[in-house]
Every structure is written in structure tokens, then in C-alpha cells.
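Handoff note, outgoing to incoming analyst
You'll be picking up this chain. Sequence as last confirmed:
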Amino acid sequence: MIVYCCSDLIFATKVRSTAEALGVVSRPVRDATMLANRLNRVDDGKPNDPVAAVLIDLEAGDHALAMIEQAKSHDASIPVVCFASHVLTDLLLAAQNKGADQVLTKGAFTARLPELIGALKPA
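Most recent structure output, in case you need it:
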């Protein structure tokens, strides 16, 4: 399962629909508590597969950078892919420094989304 945190409905819909088209289960997270629930597979009656990757919109708020560390401290092997506007260079660099595996501009993220989700697809 891929979990994603997006700042707006447009990107959330892109992630969900691309994952669905590729046959990948995806679940949204809005905050650290929701991410912890997905990582720990807390039963909420919805798909609860092991987390294979975390996608984070760095513009989702102050918790976005902390979520990188949270995912990596839970399991360092889980790929974390972050994205933000190309003008937010400090934020993109901060994500790299926090341990994100890939940091992309929104344009690159959108263009590569099918490829990214395909590569992150659980075995």
C-alpha cells in the first residue's frame, strides 16, 4: 500500500487515480497520527496492507517534514518521495536533509507519477 499526504484535492486525486489505474492500494494521511496508524496497520475497516511507500506534498503544512522522519524511523527501507513547487528550494532541500529518498518539483512529480507508483508498487 502507498500512503500519501497532499495539500490539495487535485494532487490527492492524481495520486489516488494513478495508483488505482496501476492496481496499487493507496490511502491518504493528513497528519502524523494518521501516518502512524497506517505504518502500524491499525485496523479501521479499510485496506490496511503494509506500507510500501510514502508520498508527501511538502506544502501540506508544518508536519510534512516531520512525517519524513516519522516514516524513516519506523522503517528506514520504506521509500519516501516528496514534492513541492519549484520555487520552494529551501523546503525541497530540507526534505533531502530529513532523509527523503526522492525530492521532486510538482511538475516532475506529476510527469513521473505513473512511473513512480509503478516502481513503488508492492511485490
